[in-house]
Amino acid sequence: QNFKKKAFLTADVPQTMHLAGPGSSIPEGLWGVFWMDQYGVSSIAKDPSYPFKMIGSAEVLASFGDASYESDTGCVTPVPCYGGLHWAFTNNDAGRTLIGMHLRQRNTLSFCFRKDGNIQIYQKMLDEEASLGPVPVGGSTMAGMLG
Question: Which one of 50, 75, 95, 100 is at 20 to 30 Å from 3 when CA atoms are compared?
Answer without folding.
Answer: 75
